[in-house]
Amino acid sequence: MPRRRVASVSAFIGCAVVGIVPGCGTEPSTDETTAALTEPAAPAVTPACAVAEPAVWTNQSFPDQARRFHVEFDVTPSTSSIDAVVGLSDGSAASFSQLAGIVRFNPSGTIDVRAGDTYRADTTWRYQAGQTFRIRIDLDVRDHTYSVWIGNTVRLARLYAFRTEQATAPRLNNLASVVDSTTGTLQVCGLTVVADATTADGCVVAAAGDGFVDLPQPTATVLDTLWFNAEADRPDIDAVVGQSAGVPDAFSDLATAVRFAPSGKIDARNGDTYRVDNNNTYGTTRRSFEVISDLTSHTYSVYYGTSGPAFEVARQYKFRTEQRSVAQLDHLAAIVDSPAGNLTLCPVANAPSVGVVYSREGIYSVAPLPNNEALISGGTTTTRVDANGQVIATLAAGGEITTDALGNIFVVNITGGFTLTVDKFAPDFAPLWRATQAVPGSGPIQEITTDSTGAVIVGIANGNATAFRFTADGTLASTLEVPGEAISFDGDQVFVAWQHDDTLQITQFDIATGATVWTRAFDGRAQVTAMTTDPAHNVLFGGELITPIDFGGGLIPLRSNPDRRLPAFVVKLSPGGDHVFSQGTGDRTVNDIATNGPRIVVAATYSTQFNFIHLLSLDANGAPGPAYGTTGFGGSEQYGSSDRIWMGTSGRVWANQVTRWPGAEPWPYMVALDE
Q1: Fewer CB in a 10 Å sphere around the end CB: N or C, the chain?
Q2: Which residues are 653's β-sheet partners?
Q3: Same domain as 114, residue 92
Q4: What are the C-alpha distances in Å from 33 to residues 6, 253, 258, 431?
Q5: Domain of 332: which CATH number?
Q6: How many angstroms separate the most distant Cα atoms in the chain?
Q7: Residue 272: which domain range?
């Protein structure tokens, strides 16, 4: 079908412009056609004032409008009991029946609106003599409906029918006013006419035959989160909402696409076809959507109903085939491709990520490698990725992972609930050996590391803290089992945290002999939930205070806000167990700690009525450090909780997080973050 491009009569600066395309094609279920866009023009403005007097009609003409448009003007009644109207017509008006949409200043002192054959209003709004009102009227000539606003905030009428005599008006091109009382005047100034898809309350409307409604968005180059509410005016519309790089000119320009299918169901584009993970109908009520797009993997996920119980419509669907290498997303577009119908989007917002290098949906174990490369393991697969997250190689095995100085890879699992399995692979993923060992209880695996001999050490916490050391050839060399709730390693040295009665103990053990190297005891009660060591052999730990504790830097008090206790804390001890710093973090929980020495990052969860992800950045002395990026999934505040984190020598952080929008199901993901 040849494209036809027709310039709009006017366009509103900063708003989306509806493409006016007579004969725009439709999109069948599988074959899609091209839909053109409108070229914007300047608004049509009539700055002069018109003053209506009793029985004297004033008319202000403007170019023909036959689709969706809006007008704005200032109107001032001279008395508080006038009977006067201002309305729109096809040609100059000299009678009330010629007006399609009418705003009336009635003798009772309120403003009302014509709805078919009567006057009424959704909101009672009084006027005063000499008071000026800014009126906006949103109209769709094809549907013969209009909405009226005062000051873009007070809605007098929503989708009222044109006056009965104008129920089939083909166009509007005039603003008329008249005073029907015996005294008073009505002044109408600053008429502006705009042919676009916006409404006064910040919505945009895609209508059948208008092509794409296009909204510029902040540019996203890694991750982007899009939120919108959508309302179809019929349950069998054919409409698409998607994102693109630049202004879209055809369906093939959309990287992501959420479709309101003629079947009445919501689906999404996956590469070259539409499909859905969960069937949901859309009806004619307003629905909430959240779309998370990943430009590093060219995939996206769609949530439906995020303001209440949510469903994942699409999990990591591929960008449309024609957009599989798109480098950015910067426009939102909507189109109704059925012969009739409207789709209203309101409100619309998006948040690109900041400082995110790449992401993966799901929960992973990470082993940082030189040059910001990494091993990422989840489920039954481990991948080696470059600094930008692109896959270099894949191993058909997954679990907790670490590497040794030679680049060998260790994949560790607990299978059957009580069997520890350690697999060693060469740097090229060739299998070397497997070792198994019965474990007391069912885990979880809290940490794994290697020492200078190439041995791998595995720590499990399940009421007791247990460490297993396997030599470089897979032989079980030693086992250490002591009371403890958290465990960490520094080469062949083991650090254990244990709450014993009203004393919190931090102890260093030698795994080969089981001997105690040092221990520190702190009066009070706390739950240690994270522990690690840095390259200089300092030990860091954190968790939740049950009572105030002095770790050597002064008593850390219990903190709270009106909604939650905020007992989280973090402590650093020297290689000999001496205090370096200690502080409350102001969070509800500490879930993990990672460090490369100069930098420390604490994965915490802050709480009010909801939980928020918080990555606390510190320098080696506990002072605030450089901030790390955000995904944008929750806007400026990321709903959800943090989980495990890892840090490379450069300071890059890999973080497992779980976003949980209020009322929605959790969405787990891993992100690689730079400062």
Answers
A1: N
A2: 647, 673
A3: yes
A4: 18, 12, 17, 51
A5: 2.60.120.200
A6: 107
A7: 204-352
User: Are residues 267 and 328 located together in one domain of the fold?
Assistant: yes
110: which strand partners? 126
Sign of torsion over alpha carbons 86, 92, 93, 97: negative
3-state class of 245 per DSSP? coil
| C-beta of residue 212 within 8 angstroms of C-beta of residue 35 | yes
- Domain end among 352, 380, 406: 352
pLDDT tens digits, one per residue of 220-231: 999 998 989 999
Cβ neighbours around 574 below 10 Å, total: 12
Q: Are 346 and 206 in contact (CB under 8 A)?
A: no
166 and 308 inside one domain: no
pLDDT above 60 (res 618): yes
Q: What are phi and psi of 531, to 5 degrees?
A: -155, 140
Q: Is the same domain home to 190 and 210?
A: no
Cα(639)–Cα(636) distance, rounded to whole angstroms?
10
| Residues 217 and 345 reside in one and the same domain | yes
Distance CA 674, CA 96 (A): 66
pLDDT recorded at residue 14: 28
Count of the separate structural domains present in the chain? 2
User: Against a cut of 0.85, is the pTM above it?
Assistant: no
Q: Locate all alpha helices (DSSP H) within 249-377, ordered by sequence.
A: none
Residues 363-377: tens digit of each pLDDT: 999 999 999 999 999
Radius of gyration of the chain (CA): 33
Same domain membership, residue 214 and residue 345: yes
- For the chain, first and last CA: distance in Å? 50
Distance CA 106, CA 180 (A): 10
Whole-angstrom distance, CA of residue 508 vs CA of residue 483: 13
Last residue in a domain, options 194, 221, 244:
194
Do 295 and 348 have their domain in common?
yes
Q: Which residue has the tokens 């959507």?
A: 289
Report in angstroms the alpha-carbon separations of 73 from 43, 134, 484, 591. Answer: 13, 6, 73, 57
CB 80 within 8 A of CB 93: no
Question: From residue 202, how far is each of 113, 138, 247, 331, 483 by CA, in Å?
Answer: 21, 12, 20, 17, 60
